[in-house]
């Protein structure tokens, strides 16, 4: 495993690895590595195996629990292997941030909340907890964008809340 990761995207997507990531984000960003920070996947050999099988063999895949990841990795840009970090929900991204993985931008691509109070797009439905946690990240000066695909217009979360998207 390389010692330096050049983090090109930190993303929340409840699907983790799927077609949009494999066919759009990885090629656009030239990513050579995926880091999945998810407590459930980290202890589920079946889910880990399915993810590894879905990812092209030339892409390195690293899977960690959220706390383990946050304590052993720093947000770095520049030199190193181009890496996408994936979380399945806002809570895990915030946990990682609070435990030391201090990213500066968060991409929210796909998330559905059972208690949705804010519909931001066809693929982003946030509950009050999600909104509150994004608010914590924004107060820490993290830029939070909503964007499913690289070609989509980036929507700043602060602007969506001001506009009262529902």
Provide an overview of this structure.
This protein is an alpha/beta fold and 166 residues long. The protein is built from seven helices and nine strands, in the order βαβααβαβαβββαββα. The chain has helices at 19-29, 39-42, 45-54, 66-72, 90-98, 128-139, 157-163; strands at residues 5-13, 33-37, 60-64, 81-87, 105-112, 116-121, 124-127, 143-146, 155-156. Strands 1, 2, 3, 4, 5, 6, 7, 8 and 9 form a nine-stranded mixed β-sheet that branches. Helix 4 packs parallel to helix 5 (90-98) and helix 5 runs parallel beside helix 6 (128-139). It is globular and about 45 Å long. 34% of the residues are buried.
Q: Would you identify the regions where 5 or more consecutive residues have pLDDT less than 50?
A: none
Describe the global form. Answer: globular
Q: What gap, in angstroms, lies between the N and C termini?
A: 43 Å
Measured by DSSP, the beta-strand proportion falls in: 25-35%
How many DSSP H or I helices? 7
Number of strands: 9
Radius of gyration: 15 Å
Biggest sheet record: 9 strands, mixed
Order of helices and strands: EHEHHEHEHEEEHEEH
Secondary-structure-based class equals alpha/beta
- Let me know the average pLDDT: 86
Work out the helicity level: 25-40%
